Amino acid sequence: MEKINENEIYLFTISGVEYLSSPETYPEYSASVEMFLRMKKLFETEEALLKRLGATTIEEVLLKCPDRFISATTKTKDGKVNIVWFDIWANYFFKQDDNSYDYFFAKKLSRSNSLAIENILNYHKNKWDESSSISFERFVRLATRSHLELFEQDQVQTINEWIDANYKTIPSIESVNAPSLKAKGRLKRTKGDNKTVLTEEQTTILVDLLQKEGVFLREEYLNKQETGRVIGYLTGYSPDSLRISLGEEKLKGIYANKGNLKEVFSVWSKINNLISSQLKGS
Q1: pTM of this prediction?
Q2: What's the sign of the alpha-carbon dihedral 233, 112, 158, 123?
Q3: pLDDT tens, 62-109?
Q4: 49-86 CB burial, b ≥16 within 10 A, e <16
Q5: Which of 35, 142, 145 is nearest to 99 (CA)?
Q6: CB pairs under 8 A, 24+ apart, for 21-25?
Q7: Which of 15, 192, 232, 279 reaches 20 to 30 Å from 54, CA-CA?
Q8: What sections of the chain are H helices per DSSP?
């Protein structure tokens, strides 16, 4: 078997680390991987999957690997519906021009210690296609800034020091903002912890409504990734999960749950009452 280069970006190694080190956020990570695999149309038929794994039934596969495969349906040209499977641990090698390359590159860095981060950056600096529209230095800056919630303060410091040593440019990535964002650490949310009055889905509805009414910047000025990161810091919910929930199809499903709408309405009514009280007292 060919030896794996530990500095490369392989889906199965990233997924393995995520599964073992962050089980509480693994479902959100899996959703991001599924979205990527859908865009690339990287799926298998049930027959092909069983043959590859040497299994006789899909139940056998799911019992052995309960968090690895996600099913979906596709239609053939003649309208026939087929069940297909996405492998979250697929043996996929990420390339520079892949959609979401920045996300998986950031994931790789964020699960590495300082020495490994330097090795990864040195390796990819040497193989980067400089004929692309963006330099490697700029890519590292943007990838880190866009996914800042994935990193610890010392990791951002390591990346900043590497940029300074290799490019002698200033200022470094979020050199002032990153420590302040990490000063108290990330709040770990669990289902039903009641640390905020709205669930993650209900929060997504509120954010969407505020954007539609122009209270927050609309999507032409603030993309879903940036919105998810900001709301994540304010609520403690996962920025990646919020980004996915703000997607058009996922949002339709969230709005379809009338219980979500009732809870948002209840909170908004309480805000209205507080505003009325302030007006009466003025």
Answers
A1: 0.62
A2: negative
A3: 999 999 999 988 877 787 888 899 999 999 999 998 989 999 999 999
A4: bbeebebeebeebeeeeeebbbeeeeeeeeeeeeebbb
A5: 35
A6: 21/111, 24/188, 24/190, 25/238, 25/240, 25/241
A7: 15
A8: 11-21, 26-40, 46-53, 58-64, 101-110, 114-127, 136-146, 153-167, 177-182, 200-212, 224-235, 239-245, 248-256, 258-281
